[in-house]
Design brief:
Elements: H1 3-6, E1 12-15, H2 23-31, E2 41-45, E3 49-56, E4 61-67, E5 71-75, E6 79-84, E7 90-95, E8 100-103, E9 111-117, E10 123-130
Antiparallel strand pairs: 1-7, 2-3, 3-10, 4-9, 5-8, 5-10, 6-7, 6-9
Length: about 140
């Protein structure tokens, strides 16, 4: 069992062992292994939180990014996504407006993943990171 097995990851597993990953996706994950931009737009940052907006049109992707801070997201719209995680797993997820999930990371733990809108309408979230936790925040520059 790994740390990822204990995270409340949403959706159904549709691929394992990097089976459906093109070389370009593997390269992106390697290049973004420490990308702390966990959303499309940083709305607010303080000593306590970072608040991000994610809005993806159909077919649009948020590139691979690394979560190290405790955080939660709330879906602002219904929709569907495809996500790849650094362990080689691919998931497809359905969201309902108002759905919220929370994640907690111990020292050295992280989640590296992407997010692609595979639905027919815009997909939107608010993500709130707790800056104070077991891991230091990743730089955003």
């Amino acid at each position: 069992m790994t740390f990822l097995d204990n995270l409340p990851l949403a959706g159904a597993v549709v691929g394992t062992d990097f089976s459906d990953w093109p070389a370009s996706l593997r390269d992106e994950f390697q290049a973004n292994a420490h990308n702390g931009h966990v959303g499309g737009l940083l709305l607010h940052e303080s000593e306590r939180v970072r608040v991000w907006q994610i809005r993806l049109a159909p077919g649009e992707r948020l590139p691979a990014h690394r979560h190290v801070l405790d955080y939660f997201w709330t879906a602002l719209t219904d929709g569907r996504s495809r996500q790849h995680t650094h362990d080689g797993t691919t998931r497809e997820v359905s969201y309902r407006r108002g759905e919220t999930r929370e994640y907690v990371f111990g020292a050295g733990e992280y989640l590296l993943h992407d997010l692609e809108n595979i639905g027919g309408d815009d997909l939107a979230f608010i993500t709130v990171e707790q800056v104070r936790g077991a891991n230091p925040p990743l730089p955003l520059s």
